Batch of 2 targets.
Target 1
Amino acid sequence: MENNNQKSGNKAILIVLALLLVGSIGFNIYQFSDKNKMMTEMQSKIDTVYIEKTKIQETLDITSADLSKYKGISDSLDKVVGEKQSELEEMEKKIKNLQSVVKKDASKQKELNDAIAEYKKKLEDALDQIDQLVLENTKLKGENQSLTTQVTDLTDVKNNLENKVNTASILKVEYVKVKAFKKKLLGDGTTETSMAKKATTLSVCFTVLDNKIAQSGEKQALVRIIAPDNHVIGDKNQGSGTFNRVDSPNVETMYTLAVPFNYNNDKTNLCGDWHETGKTFTEGTYTVEIYVDKILVSSSKFALK
């Protein structure tokens, strides 16, 4: 009997020990799993903070470059640029202070997000105000690097073509004007701009002068818009194409857009629009060449800032 009781006691002890061992293993597994979960969540938070910090810094970095390039155009514009830079610099300090606070107090995150949103809006408003001032300033002066054009002397063109065409019948093009347009922030439609990164459309308008001895009938004015990097803007899916110039009959020349018109030997006003899709225009000086009857009749320049 005593042996049976001893065996029963030993068995009970073994069962208790087994249960404790199983519980210990289960607890260790739980701790390990929970630790891994905490490490994963911590790494995710660290990654999120790093990404947000990078985005914020990228937003702040563009301010100085975007505003400073408009200095030197006029005294009034310099004053506005200076005021906007000072205003945005104060907001930058606020944002950077909030970044430090958020590291210790997560409840300040909304305040930081609101400050960043306000900063972006002020920057956008500043750029729009500067854009309008640039346009107004150049209109008052009657000249604007981004909108006015310089019609080249056609003497060289005529000399090169004397053996091929009757120069007296060559149509002349003058009064070339190029305007850039951007989409309105509110509502539909567009408004004029001088900023490359905001522009979505270039409108080229010009006048074909009267010529009583030129051949009348259906014609095309072929417009070439040449970017600052010297490549011709164009897309065959949007109506661009190639032609053979009279002075280079064996070379295919790309054009940006074609403007058809019916010429009756009288002065004819024409316009053509180029819509840039999927990308923005680059800053710098552009060249616009206009060909009629495959002859270069005008070369003009304009600039986008």
Target 2
Amino acid sequence: MSAEGFNLAARLPAAARQPGVLQATAYMSVACAFFALMNVFVRLAADSGMDVIQIAFFRNLFALMAMLPWVISTGFQGLHTHRLGGHLGRAVIGQIAMVFWFLSVALLPMAEATALNFTFPLFGTILAALILKERVRARRWTATAVGFLGVLVILQPWDTQLAPVSFLPIGAAVFMACSAILVKQLSRTESAGTIVFYMNLFLTPIALVPALFVWMWPTWEIWLVLIALGACAALSHLSMTRAYAMLDASALQPLDYLRLPFVALFAFLAFGEIPSDWIWPGAAIIAASTFYIARREAQLARAARLARPPQGPQAPDGSP
């Protein structure tokens, strides 16, 4: 390392110099970029007249094919799992979220859809209270309410007639929140490659059945778009899953907002879309509220660990 590089590294906070933190940050940033690029290919396929249900099938098929080199390199050992039910459940929820999201990308400006989709951590708080019976205190409920005020800033229901399609990315956020809970649970025992492979393995036949009812054969140009879509999907999910396996979700949450500038840039370059003036302040309100929720959860988890009596030697990941 050069002297300049050494001095720069020395100025970083100690936590940021940890290899796991740096790698998780890099993986999450790459995931956001590929996710944004994937949306461009979804829009291109939808603009060609292809139904989003069929687009979802090809996305899953080519993402599964993109995973084959990983399967070969692991010698099929990476496919070993005792949690097929968990993988199947995540695939079903993921398919619903995918259809909602692809409809959002096809029918709404991409930056607006992305900003509204940032509500999924807010729904994660609600689901944690309702389903997991977690205790959510007043400050987290207040932050959740503030986040939904950001949604209103973007939608501006007082100024324009609210279009039903505006609720599509919010619906996608609900199912994405459910999927994120399952990913975190699966990542405790499963590798990133295993999680992504089984998701696409189950998603492909699940998506094929409804796609047969709206089938149209793509042109060769759209075949290239669909292949690129599947590759971006596999790379984004693989990078995201590796990031979550390395670092807590609360620490990674702020990085997820990199999706918005990536999406805005790609949408402008590919389609000439310019985000409305209300997108950025609304997204900032949502981001601030979800960042507070993530930080609050991390503080409570840290306090719980400190209050817990020693249980003997711990594994590096904190598990018994």
